Amino acid sequence: MQNIQNWSNEMWLIAGIGLFVGFILAYLFISLTKGSVKKQTETAKELTQAKQELESQKQLLEKHFAESADLFKTLAQDYQKIYRHLAKSSEQLLPDANNKSLFLQSFMNSEKSTAITPENPPKDYKEGSSGLLKN
């Protein structure tokens, strides 16, 4: 304790300046890191919010496609019912033997005609080549 009492004015001045500089540096450090921490927390909140929005969007898409699949299934079943009805009606209303099998054959032929083979390209293609390499 006697050492502190024996300090000269210059030593007290140096200690005071050091303390003052320390406070200024601490204040600057805190203010700089405080903004950084604030930005980090804001970024973390935004990230969490984006993840929640993404998850809700994903759930909406899954629900949409599940409902669409169910609707297409129902639609396909309805088309099958219509086809059976027309086939049955054609048998009853058109007793001619040629016409009975005609309705069913057209269904069978339509499946074959939609098959994509090298000889039978998709119907959206033009006849022959139409590009730059056309001879």
Automatic annotation (TrEMBL):
One of its GO terms (cellular component) is plasma membrane. Its main location: membrane. It is found in: Cell inner membrane. Residues 37-67 form a coiled coil. It is a single-pass membrane protein. Keywords: Cell cycle, Cell division, Cell inner membrane, Cell membrane, Cell shape, Coiled coil, Membrane, Transmembrane, Transmembrane helix. The chain crosses the membrane at residues 12-30. The keyword Transmembrane applies. Residues 113-135 are annotated as: Disordered. GO terms for biological process: cell division; regulation of cell shape. Signal peptide: none annotated. Belongs to the ZapG family. PANTHER family: INNER MEMBRANE PROTEIN YHCB. This is Z-ring associated protein G.
